[in-house]
Batch of 3 targets.
Target 1
Amino acid sequence: MEARVADISAGRAGEAIWLLEHPPLYTAGTSARAEDLTDPGRFPVHVAGRGGQYTYHGPGQRVAYVMLDLNRRERDVRAFVHQLEGWIITALAEFNVTGEIRPDRVGVWVTRPDKAPGAGGRPCEDKIAAIGVKLRKWVSFHGISINVEPDLSHFDGIVPCGIRDYGVTSLVDLGLPVTMDDLDTALKATFGTVFAG
């Protein structure tokens, strides 16, 4: 990925998005806190140069490494993260899932009326997608992850993204028979509606 980013920056390669699945592992972003790795022996832990804290990657989760040249687009980190959120939300809408962002929490969230209300009677919310990016010479790398059908118990070895008061979910956990191919089709179909160029 870093070699591709260097080639994009130098004009030797075009932009790319890689869609993949990882074996079970935890990654530590640049803001990861040691106390948020609650089961350090459970899976391999990889230090990643991306922003954010601890996250889980594994089978049943679509990881999209997004290598875009913001020199050609807009040199604005916040706008880029907002576009990534919008891409996830637009792709989830293809399955009639309402993904939302919260100003005090990273990632994309879904309201869970099927679960008991949270603190203060607020509706329960679970995280369905994470974002962790890095820029080098205004070329992005790392990216997003969307839970299709991972083993949600694998998130128990970390405090995902440092957020303790909320859970995680997946498309299948929401009762939708969505496959990885289905999600890939939605991501490809909606990319151009969010990212011009």
Target 2
Amino acid sequence: MVAWLTSDAPVPYPQALAFMEARAKGIAAGEAEELIWLLEHPALYTAGTSARVEDLVDPDRFPVFDARRGGQYTYHGPGQRIAYVMLDVGKRGRDVRRFVQDLEHWIIAALDRFNVTGEIRPGRVGVWVARPDKPLAPDGSVQEDKIAALGIRLHKWVSFHGLSINVEPDLTHFDGIVPCGIRDHGVTSLVDLGLPVTMDDLDVALRQTFAAIFSDTPGTAGPAAAQTVP
């Protein structure tokens, strides 16, 4: 059974990292349930293992944390839903590539509940949406903006870190970094797309679509009842 926790107040990044690491160790030892943790962070930047110094454009704007997950620089802050996934990848076939694809498909399925078509692009991490409402790109193609990011780390085949989906963050806060090292595309959110979606709306969509993506994996029986973390 996968447990679900929701934090109502923004969670400091060091506190979240310590919690995830401890939970992953507990799951690996058979002492804790798998967990999806929904939360927000105060405004901050995180650096993944592939982060490049030149992509931190404004290092004094917000605190910067070494995330020790895959990927490059990303922004987290109010109005962005974080879903940290502490799941046993070992029991799910030990296929990290497929696991990451499942996370991408989960994001896409949740966005579809709001009639937003999320797409994956080779060579570009995250989930993207086409922006036909914007001027064409220099090469004549339709512009695309990033709406969700993801990155994980494993401890003895148990995942932690996870994904982030932009509901209504301050998009100017992304200006302090080159998000995920990609300079040629922008960032958007559900509200920026003109959709009056709330954090609670997205949480419902994430819970409703989770089981359809992960139901065929050992140890997963779909979402359990929600709990609240102070």
Target 3
Amino acid sequence: VRTAVRAGAAEVNLVYRRRIEDMTALKEEIESAVAEGVEMLPLQAPVSIEVDASGACTALLMQPQMISACSRGRPGVVNAQKPVERLEADLIVAAVGQDVVSSPFEAFGMKTHWGAFTTDEFLAAEGFSNVFVGGDCQSGPTTVIKAVGAGKVAARNIDEMLGFHHYLDCGVSAPPPRMNDRTPKGRVNLIERPVKFRKRDFNEVEIGMSSEEVQQECGRCLRCDCFGAGASCGGRIQYV
């Protein structure tokens, strides 16, 4: 929707069948979209697209929703006993997320649950000792850093399965930790360019840190490379 604003659309609406607080987007992104003029239409489920004689879309028909019982950790939605609503539109863009194409793997014998492959604590696919899984296809939608961690775990376990116990030498060594300024400081918040400017171009929305801000952020580092135990150290199972 923010791209549509920058592409010159006179009016942009976001139709979402759940509540705004249920959106799988950063709060800052939602607030920025609203500031740029996007109208949020939550609790509206698309039903059909209305077209004219030439086949061009003229409107989106939406069924109002209501919150129901929780499902998979968050409130579900069901059709509300309200009439279908009509939203005039010249262009409709479907943005319904992504999914894992699991059917070929299921035909091979791999087990899934809610579209994600089931694994043991070593990320080996259930029923297979030589097939490892990681990322969204194992955990479901989550952060990039967790997917990277899962990849490291899978790589180490593949190494173990092949009879090795390698440790890669990257050719550098981390300097020893030194005492630093432990004065509690808040995280530096990046500010954004004014809406009236940023909505007209595709330049970066956020303004980068100053040298002073960078130094303060670096001072907050807790040296996880020396004191932490991430997914690639201290074991061969996935830690969450």
